[in-house]
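Before the break, one more example. Copy the sequence into your notebook; we will annotate it together after we see the structure.
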Amino acid sequence: MTSFAQHGPAWSQVATFGALDEQAWRRAAQWLEHHLPTTPRLQERIHCLTLPITAWLLHHLNAAPRRPLMVGLNAPQGAGKTTLTRSLVGLLEHLGHRAVSISIDDFYLRRDEQLALAARHSGNRFLEHRGYPGTHDVALGARVLEALQAGADVEVPRYDKSAFNGRGDRSDEVTVLRGRVDVVLLEGWMLGFQPRASVEDADLRAPNDALRQYAAWNERLDVMISLRMKDPRQVVRWRVEAEAATRAAGRPGLTEAEVEDYVRRFLPAYEAWSRSLDDGPWQGDRLLTMTLDADRLPVAP
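Here is what the structure looks like once it is written out:
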């Protein structure tokens, strides 16, 4: 193994599974080198983030009493969830395991439903736009997860974040998944959050109550990966960068000021619920936690 891996903050969590196949690790690293974009600190990203998560997933996949292994990935907005899940799915496929990834974003309410929700909670800054607990079609997400768990064909909705000048709407297009898979990766910024007994902010009470509905998703997840921020303010910069990339690609998006306003509304959510994953149903080695620095790479918590 490279020194990157052995000195990485996630190594202790992976090493508990016993001796790792060094040749297999190197072959997987070579595959990632050819399929990931060349970026600064790429070797750290491969050996300290992607490969430790892959080794952890393979351990649980091999020990799973049934397929698919249902995996949750909780990570802040802009932390690179889409890039990471794409890498994990590709590498797992390369290793002979059929994997799919879906995002909780695709289960956001339709635009008219979101507007109706905002009207019912007039003045609530957390429910004015998509994002918070309560702004998803939880029943739809549960049906999709149930179908994937059963190995049935299923249509996964798509959410178009560029619609309505970046406010978003559910697309008419769907992704069709057919047959049984080995691994299902469900990712989202608030996935797995647990409701608190009480919250002081009056506007947080409705989203906090809504979190109870998401047990319909959580109870289907065998294991959970939690990527946490070293500094909660990192999420603002990350999201601004992501939205700038959207606009640079020629797609409609929010302005920088709109993005900052939008994302800062989420900081109370991270303060209220980000540590609640520790109280969720994923205990012991069923929960893998990593803390990310400003470059989205693992550091000591």
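Residues 3-299 form a domain with the Rossmann fold fold (CATH 3.40.50.300). The beta strands are 69-74, 99-103, 154-160, 169-177, 183-188, 223-229, 287-292, 298-299. Try to locate both features in your own notes.
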